[in-house]
Structures are given as C-alpha cells and as structure tokens.
Amino acid sequence: MDFVEGHVLRTTDIAAAVFDEAQRRVAGESLVDVLAEIHSVDVDAVGLGDLGRREGYIERQLKRWWSQFEQSKTRDLPVLEDVYRLLKARVPDQSSATIVHGDYRLDNTMLGDDGRVAAVLDWEICTLGDPLADVGLLMVYWSEKNDQVEALPSSPTALRGFPNRKEVADRYAERSGRDLSGLDFYVAFGYWKLACICEGVYARYVGGAMGSGSSGFEHFGDQVVLLAETARAAIDG
Fold first, then answer.
1. 78, 136, 159, 227: which one has the fewest Cβ atoms less than 10 Å from its Cβ?
2. How distant is the alpha carbon of residue 175 from its chain centre?
3. Cα angle 34, 189, 194; round to 5
4. Closest Cα partner for 61 from 125, 113, 115?
C-alpha cells in the first residue's frame, strides 16, 4: 500500500465536475485495461498461488451467497430462488484461474487527473477464481442512460463520454484475449449476487439492526426483486 493522489468518481455530480467527456472516455478505457492486467498476473510468480482455491469459483460463490440469503431470509422470494436454480444448472466450465477482485467497479478505483486508474481499492474479498465473474459484475455496475434498473444510484458511467457496455466488453476481450461469448451467464450471476447482498441489508433493516429512526433502506426490498428479475432476463441474453 502507498499514498495515492486521485479522484473517486462515486456520483454523476462528482464525475461531471472533475472530468470532461474526453477524460471520461480515458477513465472507462483505463478501467477495462487495468482489469485485464489484473487478470493477466502470474499468481505463482508473485507469491499469490495459495490466495484461494483455483477451481469451482462460481459453484463456491453460489453456495456462499445462497447460504447467506437463507440465513437472513425474512420473506419468500420465488424469483431469487428460480434464478439460483437456473444458475446452478448452467455453470460454465472455468477456463482459467486468476486473481478475482470480487467488486471491481469505477468507484472502487482512484483516478489521476488524466483519467487513468491510479489505484484499485477495496480488495477485501479478492481471491483466485474465474476472471469472467469480475467482467460480469462490471457490466452490472456499468449503468447507461435510460436503464430501467441501476445497480448503483447516480452512476457516473451514464454520463456522455464513458464507453457503453458493449464497448467495455469488446475492449476487455481485445486486451485479455478471452472469449466472452458466455458473458450473459456472468452478468446474470452478478445481478443475482447483488440481489442477495441487498436482501441481507433489507433483512437487517426490517429486524431493527440499523438502529431506531434509520431510513433510506425501505426501497431495498423492491430493489432485490428488480435485481433478481434482471438476472433472470440476463441468463438467456
């Protein structure tokens, strides 16, 4: 770790104030390039070969998040259960094992004044596994104008200048050399995983764990259903 100067683009207001359209394009492309670089690291050569199990990443993730959902369950959510069964039945073969960040998105990086990624933040759930899980989740977080469902409120990527999802995916495929023909599965998994996380937050809110007078979590219940429905739609493209 080291001290790094830079900008964290957490909202559209911040992104619009800090960067012009050309810099936003640089930021989007740099974000993709850095992810491809992370996935190209020789984990054995840098001493990270034992960071985690290499195979069966998606299976382990499905088990983990399903278990967390069941432990915090406060209501019936048939769509979330349906998507779980579909994902479990369609897990693709894992082509390689790389460093997986686990929550790679624009606001988990710090950008320099030129728009290029200066640092990648929030590594607490990184492990070894399927690199396409990072790409799928990045697609989930990558909002575009007129999206019906936003994984993050006020996402800067909807601003003019940022590449669109297709451009992001195409650039990653070019930089990494990986086949993204099965990306729909990983996008669906990303939406489903986020739905499970949000349901845990909602369950804590309903149970009073957020403290008396807490607000701002009421919409999480509806958001969970929207995310799960989007995951189901994404499974078949």
1. 78
2. 19
3. 85
4. 125
**Helix or strand (DSSP H, E) at 98:** strand 98-100
What tokens appear for 120 in the block? 């990648």
Cβ-count burial of 160 within 10 angstroms (0-12 exposed, 13-18 middle, 19+ buried)?
A: exposed
The 10s digit of each residue's pLDDT in 103-142 is 999 999 999 999 999 999 999 999 999 999 999 999 999 9
- Cα angle 149, 151, 237 (rounded to 5 degrees) comes to 60
Tens-digit pLDDT profile for residues 146-192:
887 888 888 999 999 999 999 999 999 999 999 999 999 999 999 99
The sign one gets for the Cα dihedral 175, 2, 103, 27 is negative
Amino acid at 77: L
CB 135 within 8 A of CB 186: yes
- Phi–psi pair at 50, nearest 5 degrees: -110, 20
Output the 3-class SS for 27-84: HHHHHHHHHHHHHHCCCCCCCCCCCCCCCCHHHHHHHHHHHHHHHCCCCCCHHHHHHH
- Within 10 Å of residue 105's Cβ, how many Cβ atoms? 19
Q: How far is Cα 104 from Cα 34, in angstroms, rounded to an integer?
A: 10
Decide: helix, strand or coil at residue 164. Answer: coil
200 closest CA partner among 213, 183, 217: 217
pLDDT in tens, 44-88: 999 999 999 999 999 999 999 999 999 888 889 999 999 999 999
CA distance 122 to 165: 23
